[in-house]
Amino acid sequence: MADVEVEEFDEFLREPGSVVQFLGEKGFGKTTHLLAIRSRFSGAAYVHIPEGERAEVPDGNPQMIDEAQRLTRWQQHRVFFSDVPLVLGTHRDFGRQLARAGRRVRTVAVDDRMNPTRLTRILNSRIEWVRRDKGPVPSVRHETAARMLKTFGPDVRRIQCELYMTFQDMKDGIRDV
């Protein structure tokens, strides 16, 4: 159900010392990008660091760290100064620290990658995925996706919540929104 393009990072992440960091708020697609890249590398290791907790960074190539802003300083030093390719999902830009560690960094603002066409595809595929039985289901039009992006920004979780409430209030049958 992911609708992200990550092929552009394949060759870069095969080089020692490379880092791709996905910056954005919750619900903007950082984890989706990390998991899409993970599926492209058989030796990748992924860890999500929960809020208020510590997590071990597993060995892998590349190492994928979701919520990297929660790394301890010691972990940052150890991971940033290694040569293993990294993929970070983070709210904090580590570009300067990574460059000081001799890393080549590509920074991607995930909110810049969202557009009405992509949002329409994401929402309609997720609506279809949660279908309970055969028959018509509501669908999201391009114009609605554009309006939702303007109202809520690229926060797909928030948009899905709004659509859920809209669908729950539908009394006159299935229609496009």
Could you name the CATH topology of the largest domain?
Answer: Rossmann fold
Number of strands: 5
Overall average residue pLDDT: 88
Strand content: 5-15%
Distance between the termini: 20 Å
CATH architecture of the largest domain: 3-Layer(aba) Sandwich
Order of the strands making up the biggest sheet? 2-3-4-1-5
Helix-residue proportion:
25-40%
Low-confidence stretches: none
Structural class: alpha/beta
Describe, in short, the structure shown.
By secondary structure, the protein is of the alpha/beta class. It has six helices and five strands, in the order βαββαβαβααα.
Write a structural description.
Strand 3, helix 2 and strand 4 (86-90) form a beta-alpha-beta unit. The radius of gyration is 19 Å and the shape is elongated. It contains 6 helices and 5 strands, in the order βαββαβαβααα. It has a 5-stranded parallel β-sheet. The two termini are 20 Å apart. With 177 residues, the chain is an alpha/beta fold. It folds into 2 domains: 7-111, Rossmann fold (3-Layer(aba) Sandwich); 114-169. It has helices spanning 30-38, 73-80, 95-100, 116-129, 142-152, 156-169, and strands at 18-23, 45-48, 63-66, 86-90, 104-109.
